[in-house]
Amino acid sequence: MKKMLFLNVVMVLALFFLGGCFLDKARYFSYDELKNNVERVEIVEIPGGDLKKMNILKSLDEEESDLILKELSEIRYTYIWNDPPEIPGGICLRLYNIDGTVDFIGIYGSTIDRVCCSETEFMEMIEQFVDLEQEIEN
Q1: Which residues of 88-114 are buried (b: 16+ CB within 10 A; e: fewer)?
Q2: Residue 79, pLDDT score
Q3: Could you give the CA distance from residue 88 to residue 45 in angstroms, rounded to a whole number?
Q4: Residue, of 97 and 87, whose pLDDT is higher
Q5: Global confidence as pTM
């Protein structure tokens, strides 16, 4: 009887601890951390994750950079369990850090962490800035 109780308790604890591995864990980028470490932001397109084919869509000024970092910190990212690409593809943010390093944050990955987010949320954020550039040119 004691053995069965012990095994049941062990199984419940194992399910509790291992169950956390399968839940979507949210991750938000810290606005304060980004603001203190990022000196410049660009919106870029990286076809297939190939940096040689990268196209700069817009270089953001200081005010726009601050605004996009604030909005980025409000997007819910979730951890991905498979190996993301080294450089995310598609539309991304290229962050130039104060220490001289460069990070990329996209919908399906980042060079900062193994995360992905809602394509709709990310593209809504991006379209605010890319559309502004197009309106100025017209």
Answers
A1: bbbbbbbbbeeeeeebbbbbbbbbeee
A2: 84
A3: 10
A4: 97
A5: 0.74
